Amino acid sequence: MDSCNSLPSQDCSWPSGSGDAFLTIAQAAHATPGRPSANCVWRWCRRGVRSRAGLRITLKHIRVGGKIFTTEAWLREFFEKVADADAAYFAGAGERRDARDTVAPGNAPSVGFAVNKKPRVLAGSVSPNERDAQLQRRLEEEGL
User: What is the distance, to the nearest Å, from the Cα of residue 68 to the centroid of all Cα atoms in its chain?
Assistant: First the structure.
């Protein structure tokens, strides 16, 4: 099934005009900025790309027999949709950041990683006897 049949709202009209000739996956890869592999373009057709906002955007394509075809116009549309979805996400990121900054200092969220209350003793930083003494003290503190 091609991407046109997967979403009924997509326009699946045949390309018209001289600039909208069908391209094979390899030709589309060659014509794309950054020169992605043909495998990458196939993935854009079949699985799509997940935008920063979590939306899955697929490259419009058709399947004729065992070959997949797309057009330059569909490639441009795909890139624009991905860019627009990312732009919308990052425009909302400022609002999310502002909301985070208004949290009271005592209720500030964690920074995303655990902070150990006791410093970790790295191997080789103290002598073996000191390390054993520190471990013994920690076990006694924990009641073990």
Answer: 25
